[in-house]
Every structure is written in C-alpha cells, then in structure tokens.
Fold this sequence. Notes:
The structure holds two protein chains of two kinds. In chain A, helix 5 packs antiparallel against helix 6 and helix 5 crosses helix 8 (230-244). Chain A has eight helices and seven strands, in the order ββαβββββααααααα. In chain A, a hairpin with an 8-residue loop joins strand 1 (2-9) and strand 2 (18-25). Chain A is of the alpha+beta class. The longest helix of chain A is centred in the C-terminal third of the chain and has 15 residues, at 230-244. Chain A folds into two domains: 2-110, Ubiquitin-like (UB roll), CATH 3.10.20; 117-244, Alpha-helical ferredoxin (Fumarate Reductase Iron-sulfur Protein, Chain B, domain 2, Orthogonal Bundle), CATH 1.10.1060. Chain A starts with a strand and ends with a helix. Chain B has helices at 15-22, 28-31, 43-55, 93-103, 110-130, 162-179, 245-252, 317-321, 331-343, 360-366, 368-386, 441-461, 475-494, 500-515, 521-541, 553-577, 601-604; strands at residues 35-39, 58-62, 80-81, 155-156, 183-186, 189-197, 200-208, 214-218, 221-224, 257-258, 263-269, 292-296, 314-315, 355-358, 395-404, 407-408, 421-423, 606-611, 620-625. Among the domains of chain B are: 266-400, Succinate dehydrogenase/fumarate reductase flavoprotein, catalytic domain (Flavocytochrome C3, Chain A, domain 1, Alpha-Beta Complex), CATH 3.90.700.10; 475-605, Up-down Bundle (Methane Monooxygenase Hydroxylase, Chain G, domain 1), CATH 1.20.58. In chain B, the strands form five sheets. Chain B has a five-stranded parallel β-sheet with strand order 5-2-1-9-17, sandwiched between helices. Chain B starts with 14 loop residues before the first helix and ends in a 14-residue tail after the last strand. By secondary structure, chain B is of the alpha+beta class. The chains are: A alpha+beta, B alpha+beta. Chains A and B meet through helix 1, helix 2 and helix 3 of A and helix 3, helix 5, helix 6, helix 11 and helix 12 of B.
Amino acid sequence: MKVKVKVWRQKNAKDKGGFKEYEVLTDPDSSFLEMMDVLNQDLLNKKEDPVAFDHDCREGICGACSMYINGQPHGPSKGTTTCQLHMRSFKNGDSITIEPWRASAFPVIKDLVVDRTAFDRIIQAGGYISVNTGNAVDANSIPIEKDKADEAFAAAACIGCGACVAACKNASAMLFVSAKVSHLALLPQGAPEADLRAAKMLNQMDEEGFGSCTNTQACEAMCPKEISIKHIARLNRQFFKSGFSGNQ
Amino acid sequence: MQLDSKIPKGDLADKWTNYKSKVKLVSPANKRRIEVIVIGSGLAGASAAASMAEMGYKVKCFCFQDSPRRAHSIAAQGGINAAKNYQNDGDSVFRLFYDTIKGGDFRSREANVHRLAEVSASIIDQCVAQGVPFAREYGGLLANRSFGGVQVSRTFYASGQTGQQLLLGAYSALSRQIGKGQVEMFNRHEMLDVVMIDGKARGIISRELITGKIDRHFGHAVVLASGGYGNVFFLSTNAMGSNVTAAWKAHKRGALMANPCFTQIHPTCIPVAGEHQSKLTLMSESLRNDGRVWVPKKKEDCNKDPRQIKEEDRDYYLERIYPAFGNLVPRDVASRAAKYMVDEGRGVGKTGVAVYLDFSDAIKRLGKHVIEERYSNLFEMYQRITDENPYEQPMRIYPAVHYTMGGLWVDYELSTNIPGLYAIGEANFSDHGANRLGASALMQGLADGYFVLPYTIGNYLANEIRVDAIPTTHVAFDEAEKKVKDRIAKLLSIQGNQTVDHFHKKLGKIMWDKCGMSRHGDGLRQAQKEIAQLREEFWSDVYIPGTDAEFNPELEKAGRVADFLELGELMVLDALTREESCGGHFREEFRTAEGEADRRDDLFTFVSAWNHTGVGQEAELVKEELEFNNVELKVRSYK
Lengths: 248, 639
C-alpha cells in the first residue's frame, strides 16, 4: 500500500518549522513506526535528513513515542500508542498528517521530538512514597483489598507519554498528575503523604506552564492506557483536603 | 592474568551475612564527599542510584532516553521471583538458589546465586513499601504464579506489566533523590568512554544527545547498569535504543567480557511478519501457565485453520517430550523444541515459522474472565500486532532473542577487574549461567541495585575517602575526550552509500543464522570472516547525515552499530571455543543421542572471560574455574 504523509519538520527549537509531504510504500502488517522507518531509509538513500521522532520499546509501554496523527495523539486506534498502531488502520492512498505534541510545556527539540522533562519534575516534586531502601516490613503484613489494589494498578499503568496534554485544549497535565496521586493515595503505604503529595505535584504542574482542567475529557478519550478521569476528581478532593489542612 | 572472584570463606548460607558484618563502612561525613557515576536508569541503575543517594553519596545518573522512566526494564512482563514461600509449596532460599543454578546449566557461581536467592524476599518488601501494585488475592495478600523451570509458585506480578510497575517504583525512589538534589540526572546523554587514572576508573566522557556537546564527569567510582546486548541480532525483544556501547567501551579499556555467547532466545514471541520488521515483541512466559504449545502431527494440516484440526491430530510436543514440566520447561529447551518442529516442516502460519500457543482448554476450564484478568494486556497487544483474536484462535509464536546472560565479568562485589568500575543488572554476567529462568532478570537487577552494590561498593570507597575530586582538566580526560571526538569525526567523514540500518540488519542476520539458537563450528568460522568483512565495509561505506553538533539519531545509531560489529566477533569466538552445549549455547556437534545438550563438565566448567587485545585481533581467554561444593553437577532433565 502507498500513503502520503505530511510531516512536521523543524530543525531545532529556534526554527519556525513547517510541513513537508512524502510518499511512502508500506504494507498493512507494518507498524506505523515501521512505515516511518521506511520513509527515513528513503530519505537517507537520497542523502536527505531523516525525520526525528522519539521511540524505544515499540511495545506500547515505555511511553517514548509521541506523534499527533491526523489530529489525534497516537492516531485513530483507541487505547493504542503510536508504536502499536498498524498500517491496516489506514487505506491505500490515504493522506496522513503527523505533528509533534503541541504544548508550551513540551517544547519541540527537532521535528516530532519534544522535551517532556516537565513530567519528570512533577514526579520529583512529590510523586513517590518516602521510604528508603531497607525500611520495609514484610510485604504480606499490609493486606490491601483486591479492588483497591486493582484500581491503584489501573492508575499506575500510566506510561507518561503526554498524550493527555497533547489532547487537551488547555494543555493540562491533570490526568497524568491525578493518575500518580490516585495510585499512591489508594494504597495504605501512600496514605500518610497523600495530601502533601497532591499539593506539591499540582504546584509543580502549574510552575511548568501546563494549563488548567476544564473537564472536556479529551485526555481520557485519547489516553493510550485508557486512564480514567475519575482520578482527576479524586485529585481535586485530595487537593481541597490539603488546602484545608494547610499543606499548600 | 589471574582472576580473583573474592568469594567469602565459610558456609554457602553464611557467606553474605559474614561479608556484610565485616565489610568496610564509609562514615556519613565522608559519603557526602564521594561521587559515584551510574550509567543507566533501568531496574539496576535506578535502584542503585536511589539507594546510594539515600545513604548519602553524591550520585550522577545517566540515561540515553528522554526520561529515566523509559529504560527497557519497563517492558518486562511476567513477574519477579522471590523465595517467600507464601504459597506454602515448599519453596525456600535453597530451592530458588538450586533452581537458578540448575536452570543456568551449572555455569554460574554458587556464592553469587545464593546471595541473589537470599535477598530476593527483601525486594518484594521494598517494592510493596514503595507502592508497587502487585496482584493480590481477595484476602488482600499477594498473589503468585509459576514460571518455567520450577515446580513452585514464587513469581510476583502486576498483570503483564510487572517490569513497568517495578521500574516506576525504582524511578519514584530515584526521582525523590533527584528532587532532593542528591542525584544529578542526565537524560538524553550517552556514555562514550571510561576515564582511567592510575589504573582506576575515575570518570566518563558523555555526549549530550540534543546538542552533541561532549562532557567530562569525574567519579570516585563508575557503575555500569547499561543493560544487555541482544540488539546485536538487530531483531530482538530489546528496545530500539538498547546497546552495548557503555559496556564495550569499558571492555576496550581493559574490563573483561564474560561468556558473551550466552544469549537467551525466548520461546514465546510474536513471529516475524515482514521484511520491514524493526523489532520483535515478547509474549510473556507466564502464558505457558495456561497456554498449551502444539503443532499439527501431519505436515498437510499446517495451513489449515487450527480450530479445525482435531485433538488427536495435534502434537502437544512439550507435554509429550517433557512430561514432568510440560509447557513450563525452561526457555532454552522450549525454544529449541519449537525450532525442531519448524525444521521438521510442521511450523504453522503464513511463513511456516511459528508454533501454536493455545488457550482454549484454559478458557473452558477457568472461564474467559479469569484468562482476561491474568493476561488481558498481552492478548490485546497480540491482537493489535497480528489482527487475530487469541481468545478465539491459538496464538502463533516463535523464539526470538530476548536477554544476554553474558556481560562484563564481575567478582562477588560486582566489581569488574578494573578497580572502581562496577557492573550490575543485565550488564554483568554473574547469576544466570548459560540460561536465565523466567522472572529472574527483574530479581537480579533489583537485588544488585537495592541490596548488593550499595554494600559492596563501600568496601572500595572506604579506601577513597582521602581522594579529592580529580579536576576534569586531568590529562586522562583530555586523552579520552580526544578519542571520542576523533571517532565521531571519522564516522561522519565516511559519507558512503549505505545506511546504518543496512549494516545492522546484515550483522543481525549473520548472528541469528550462525550464532543463534544452534551453532556449528563451520558456521561460526564463516561468521568470523563475514563479520570482519562487514565491519570493513561499514567503516568505508556508511552514510551518516548531519553534524556532530546537533540532535543526530543516525550518528548515535552508527556509534552503537560500530560497537556491535566488534562485539559480534567476540561472541562468535566465545561460541567457537566453548566446545560443548549448555543452556542457550547449543553446539550441533555436541548433543546426546536423544538430541539434548551435551554438557562437558570435565572440560568446560569455567567462565570464559575475554581480554580485549585490539579490534580485529583475537581476544585473550582468561578462565575462572567454577567450583560446585553445594550442588551436584547433574544432567539437566525436565522429562
């Protein structure tokens, strides 16, 4: 099959950037990134600069891949990262527009590669349980209801790709932040720091220049791991509590 | 050269306890002045960096990814072993030790493996305390499952995303220390050389991948946690960026590389679909708990819809050949058996290079919801890639390169033969012998990082407290930086006609065909010539666009493939000199009448550690004899 791709090319952070069109010969069983590999091999054979894009595990778990495909983060398949998207989701002759994540907190580095270190800084601000190596008690001494453990796991499944930010008209990082806050607050081990954690992470989120949440739910719809927005509600509750207890 | 493995004296079960009671300590005031460099932020690197920072050391941690959370440990699926005996099924530290030694086909060090089994239980405690959401039973306690090569249930898991959850735990501990300023994190940085001063590792040269800037970093010690080298095969389950570069630079500075030919071919991966395939995807070994592996008895059935093939026309060959372990034989055994079926012409699917992994019996027995709960993310991934629904038809699977047991030689303290240079996790060779058991890689990475290295490194650093930070203007940094810059300049100056991937694919094919699931002396000798020639072509005809002063992924890849082209030759040499079959290393000339591995204990009960003597020159073999005082060397049987 043959597709026409319209790719955002931008030499570096200072460059203005713009779209360029290419034709690529691919096949339905190829992954989307394998289609991009073919494009890059074509460009290299013509001694042109290949398209830079982030990718690593290609199994949908590392969270590196980050393309905005035809107006949707990670493209048209629900609950699927770009690396797990396959060309059988497109038709022969299709035109595909590929852009980087657009958010001021995620500046473009080159072409489709953006800087997502803001997410790391949010975690560094408080996205953890304060326990040093060697401090732990026997794992089975803290029984946890299965439902709660499962819910914590569902929140912890976030891969930190940033699709929620890219999908949001305000470029809010609330789904990312709330998933981590929920994951840890649902577990008894994480309870003692729950209020403080929420406050610290939200402060950092604001500092990084992410927008605020206006409940449009685009993040949930576009999340490749289908993280639920009920975590945002939980985060808001936690935040109000932390405000009342003076932890802001 | 003589190797000292520094195994403590005393009974096997007391060695680690005795060692810990006598190991030198560094006082808190001195820890503050000591700097440690950690390369890699996977399970081993992140846990080591976090733990050492908690202890008070100043740590610098480097990763090539855009965030430490993306290290490839994140992709591990099935689980992590620990001798907790929560299931009351007779598990113990000794059994985990024994299973690991036996699973490794008696080619690993007793003392290291026993220590691994001893600390395994603490890992689970630590992870739960961090908030890792392991699977639980309705009573609220932790759930377990079985993995290959063992007869107990000691594997802890978080759906099919155990690696992700454990890595995010280690990442959160690391992030906490970064937030406190105790760890300085360098994302999108690649280590390109070790700096040696007076015979000790004293720092590194790194490249900032976004700007191309070459930096110098001092450390009282350098820890390599840079993972395995499975990508030498081009197609593997490793991440695209996984590479040998850090370990290889250390090797070229004098660190010995041990058992490099010991690679693990994982039996259950999604088969190759086409020529543009860029990587292979694992389907967790945990699936063999409930899935049954089979091929049609008759060749003419191979193209039929598998659901139409009657029960009596199916050959559940693992259950037939290995009744004691059935579908849960170790990985090397399961992989070879699949290869034999395909070689016999009984492979299935469009390419004929696959076997079935069938869940229909388990779904009938347990109900679809149970299978969903156990494996839903894996089933979804399978369907996304193949467009087939494994709830309705059997999966097609085939072996693929997954893990490398070989790696930098380390002693009991996880130190390489270069003082001050340590290797942990998959980057070292120490615990898995010739074959790793499932769910043991996560265990080893975290054991090394949380519970072993933070102790053993003190034994070295205690003697370094009088050493002030060496300025990076030292001539050794000048020399190393020049070497790095010259090599980059040389790569960019070639301006040939072939892409980096072209060479990588060619190398991968040579390695897979001649140094893969089975090896033969003739093929290996041929591979030596082919690799040497390919390397020459690479250095005269590779094309790399752009400059060194910008974000240039092709340049990064080229440097890594150049190192793979040297490593490949060493792997082949190692495979050639090991004239026996053991674990993942199967030499066709050395097999029993039944076709099983013929291990030659009288001749090859040693670790092959290789000393670099120059590119294109035969490395020097240094042997570490393996002593077995607590287990009897047996023919490994799973029948």
